[in-house]
Amino acid sequence: MKKLLPYLLIFFLVLNFSILLGQNNPNYPEPEKGMKRVDLKLPKIENDKDYKVEIKFAMEIEVSECSETNDFSFNIKNLEEKYAIAPYRFPYYTLPKEMPVEMISLTKNSDCDKNKKVKKKVLSSQNIFKEYNGHIVIPFYIPEKWTVEYRLWKVNSEFKNAAL
Known about the structure:
The protein is about 10% helix and about 35% strand. The chain is mostly beta strands.
């Protein structure tokens, strides 16, 4: 038994180490039919605590040349946050396959051909702000015709007093 003790100890250490390594590799699901997975990988920057990320969804639509449609609205409550490793590690975001959107189209007061159609990229009107994290990829499961767009915002970390 004394001869087996070092081997058992090594076995349990290797087993424990392999379990810990397996917990750091997220297992994201495959996208459903009609959906796609888009991985948001942010660039590495210095002083990343001074930045926030604004995320919007976009789609290309065909509109009248006279249209001033610039964005679309959808219910942000439909964006569901899930985790690849429960309970709260490696977040990813999903939207329903049949995502209802509202588009308000205004017409320019100009001499344009209302029957002529042009393709235009429109962004979602909702602002989704997240903490900057350039170390991990953030997967989004979105309808196939949509894209994920982002921009970085530099923030001032000082809080100001709002006294009158």
